[in-house]
């Protein structure tokens, strides 16, 4: 069968049932009318996918600003699914689990991969412990790091797991080591139709991201990554991600250009600091720069408040010896519950506006 958005693979199953394109449209209609809240998002997507339109309207994540409405070509979406299938050697009849919200591009792509590659896809309501909702074994699954963290005792039922939507912490990497599965951190965005590169975590651990097929990379004058991906985007995608290019097919991610903190003339990379701190802090947190009359920007840590108070957190950081002297936060703020974006990411901008 020629892979196309109009051709549903003959091996495709959704919760055990085979469907044609027209039948999937009816499933979508039924889910919108009668499904649970999370199923209505699946229904909306199926109605859009099975329509005669050649494009799909999606929203960016909003993690670095307001979500943007963009149009994606369905042929490009199919190409993304094919690239994933090639990289991970997914075969028709393989089993897969959808446990992400289908309002996000990551959730949508699990459905597309299944329809294009002929996967047997089950779906469950998105939650922090999705594998508790099923007893099946799966060849392939995508999760956010929080789901993996909360599912460590069930993950051995997944052969290949990809993680995205947030950075994978040092602590999570360490906890994944003893589980006999393959785990990859993904790099991508809505504009590139999810991941264009992956970094293996288990069984071996890479420090760099390796590109999927048909992707070329370069850097602009800021040192930020430029992606040339003609199979998924008509124009090059200029990112705000500072990288070190290792080879023609790999790069190391350093952090976001717009997150770099200039504190007294010293450039600090929040993502690198957070990676170090995740070795000793077992709650959600982030570091950021706030205006300071002397330094220009002052490095602070914002913690989702647990049992530890801010003084205890700062004391633990000092005693750890993990950070260079300039990387130690000048102040710690405690927030009872972090605000999140519509796709479940920490809304750093909104939180900082409240505390500063």
What does this entry look like structurally?
- It is a single chain.
- With 356 residues, the chain is an alpha/beta fold.
- The protein has helices at 21-34, 37-49, 74-87, 105-117, 145-150, 170-176, 270-277, 310-320, 348-355, and strands at 13-14, 55-59, 69-73, 95-98, 120-123, 138-143, 158-163, 182-189, 194-202, 209-211, 216-219, 224-228, 237-247, 250-256, 261-263, 266-268, 285-292, 296-304, 331-335.
- The protein has 9 helices and 19 strands.
- It has a 12-stranded mixed beta sheet with strand order 1-5-4-6-7-8-9-10-14-13-12-11.
- A hairpin with a 4-residue loop joins strand 8 and strand 9.
- Helix 3 packs across helix 4 (105-117).
Principal-axes shape call: globular
Largest sheet: 12 strands, mixed
Structural class of the helix and strand makeup?
alpha/beta
Order of helices and strands: EHHEEHEHEEHEHEEEEEEEEEHEEHEH
The helix count comes to 9
Q: How much beta, percentage-wise? A: 25-35%
Q: How many beta-strand segments?
A: 19
The N- to C-terminal Cα distance equals: 57 Å
Helix share bin: 25-40%
Mean pLDDT: 93
Name the strands of the widest sheet in spatial order.
1-5-4-6-7-8-9-10-14-13-12-11
- In angstroms, what is the radius of gyration? 21 Å
- Unreliable stretches, pLDDT < 50, 5 or more residues? none
């Amino acid at each position: 069968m020629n892979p196309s958005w109009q051709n549903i693979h003959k091996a495709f199953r959704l919760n055990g049932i085979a469907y044609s394109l027209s039948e999937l449209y009816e499933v979508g209609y039924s889910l919108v009318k009668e499904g649970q809240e999370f199923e209505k998002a699946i229904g909306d997507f199926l109605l859009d996918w099975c329509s005669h339109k050649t494009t799909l309207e999606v929203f960016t994540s909003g993690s670095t600003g307001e979500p943007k409405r963009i149009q994606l070509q369905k042929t490009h979406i199919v190409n993304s699914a094919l690239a994933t299938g090639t990289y991970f050697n997914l075969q028709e009849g393989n089993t897969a689990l959808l446990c992400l919200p289908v309002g996000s591009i990551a959730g949508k792509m699990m459905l597309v991969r299944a329809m294009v590659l002929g996967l047997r896809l089950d779906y469950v309501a998105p939650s922090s412990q999705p594998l508790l909702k099923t007893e099946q074994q799966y060849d392939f699954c995508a999760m956010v790091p929080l789901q993996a963290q909360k599912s460590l005792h069930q993950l051995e039922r997944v052969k290949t797991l990809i993680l995205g939507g947030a950075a994978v912490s040092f602590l999570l990497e360490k906890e994944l080591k003893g589980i006999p599965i393959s785990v990859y951190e993904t790099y991508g965005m809505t504009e590139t139709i999810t991941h264009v590169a992956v970094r293996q975590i288990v069984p071996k651990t890479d420090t760099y991201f390796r590109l999927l097929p048909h992707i070329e990379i370069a850097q602009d004058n800021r040192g930020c990554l430029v992606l040339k991906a003609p199979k998924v985007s008509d124009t090059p995608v200029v990112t705000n991600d500072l990288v070190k290019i290792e080879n023609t097919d790999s790069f190391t991610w350093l952090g976001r250009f717009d997150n770099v903190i200039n504190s007294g003339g010293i450039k600090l990379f929040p993502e690198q600091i957070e990676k170090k701190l995740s070795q000793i802090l077992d709650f959600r947190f982030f570091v950021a720069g706030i205006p300071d009359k002397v330094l220009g920007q002052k490095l602070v840590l914002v913690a989702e408040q647990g049992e530890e108070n801010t003084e205890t957190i700062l004391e633990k950081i000092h005693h750890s010896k993990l950070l260079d002297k300039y990387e130690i936060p000048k102040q710690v703020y405690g927030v009872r519950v972090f605000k999140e974006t519509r796709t479940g990411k920490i809304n750093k901008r909104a939180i900082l506006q409240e505390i500063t």
